[in-house]
Amino acid sequence: MSSSVGNVVNGGVSFWYADDGLPAPREPLPGDASADVVVVGGGYTGLWTAYYLKKAAPSLRVTVLEQKFCGYGASGRNGGWLYNGIAGRDRYARLHGKEAAGRLQRAMNDTVDEVVRVAAEEGIEADVHQGGVLEVAYTPAQLARLKDFHAHELSFGEKDRELYGAKETAERIRIADAVGSTWTPHGARLHPVKLVKGLAAAVEALGVTIHEQTPVTEIRPKHAVTPYGTVRAPYVLRCTEGFTANLKGQRRTWLPMNSSMIATEPLTDDQWARIGWEGRETLGDMAHAYMYAQRTADGRIALGGRGVPYRFGSRTDNDGRTQASTVDALYEILVRLFPSLTGVRVAHAWSGVLGVPRDWCATVTLDRSTGLGWAGGYVGSGVATTNLAGRTLRDLVLRDSGGADATELTGLPWVGHEVRKWEPEPFRWIGVHGMYATYRTADRRETATHSPESSRLARIADRVAGRH
Ligand SMILES: Cc1cc2nc3c(=O)[nH]c(=O)nc-3n(C[C@H](O)[C@H](O)[C@H](O)COP(=O)(O)OP(=O)(O)OC[C@H]3O[C@@H](n4cnc5c(N)ncnc54)[C@H](O)[C@@H]3O)c2cc1C
Description:
By secondary structure, this protein is α/β, with parallel strands linked by helices. It has 13 helices and 21 strands.
């Protein structure tokens, strides 16, 4: 495999930046300052929060503090699946009832449309294509899981989801051994960096102050502390996702889980004719160590999955640099799905971090006694969820400051959810590596045995990890 991945560009934050250009960073914080709301972190969560706050209350003084540049984190590195999945919905159904989780699901369905709407309204050209989400099975065990998954999603009120057999799947996309798929219209493909750059520009145009190259070292009630000065504000909102462990006191809050991607060179018309994929759906599979992919606007395949899942001591990567073994593993998945692409060149490989809470449930919270708020723990589903988080943080802040009543969003079951911290090292490292090694073994067994039963190993790994 390595011959095709030999001269791959590695890191450089992500392919999306190689494609669209790294931004010139904005000025750092010049010294002590004050604001009404300070947002820590300039990814989608921080920027959507600033956007909606400023839209709702133009006189609010909102400051965003970003350690590098807006979109440096997962928001500038993701797979560009804008879709209606939210981490933790099933647990929220168990904790708060199916009706409450159904409201959360409907809010997520609407969120996909909201992102598309705002992007159009703000003139953000983010290569959005609303082709829905297609998830494919290519072993009997995957097919059994796919059918269960399909039925489970329908039970949350998703009436427009469809189940396809092998033939209908092949009419959409030719994947080796595909035996079925499920499709929902609630999804779109996009260019993550074009979205985050456009959003930062829109936020700035509304009058939000953005300081980049400004790491926050500590968050205290009413204070965001940086090496260049402290910003004081009644509300301090932590929007730091996979980097949260670097903040004082937050080492074991959310585990920084790694996800890695490759992008091929642009495929020829001939290659595309063999694959199909005219609908440009975002594409996933039903493997335990699943992959996600998109057909980019310039005719590449960008495909991601789990590489080295987690670095000891919650360390993050160096500007997205990725191990050669991970690049090879992703390439293997690519040609496993599309054998006709054997030999195609990988142009770029990169990685990023997701935030994973101990119970795998995304949350949004404002502590009314301290004015500290946060949103995140999206696991791998943040491109849309961050928008719902931003609107919810807006409502929570406006309610607390007396500018508004409780809203439908503040009543959603992920608001104010509390979870225990991760175990200290080395248990964190051993647990996460063990879990992913088990998933890979489970996938290999299912492929080898052709059994329609999901491997028991994967179920055990799920339970140990606290996923179910
Ligand atoms: C490789 C990869 C693929 C993914 N694919 C998908 C996908 O296809 N669909 C999907 O729904 N989700 C996907 N995700 C997840 C999704 O990208 C994230 O959930 C989402 O971008 C999170 O946004 P955020 O703003 O909360 O975090 P981030 O984008 O990580 O932003 C956090 C920001 O805070 C800054 N920061 C951190 N600490 C500090 C500090 N102390 N001081 C100042 N600034 C700080 C960081 O520099 C960063 O810019 C993927 C993630 C990765 C890594």
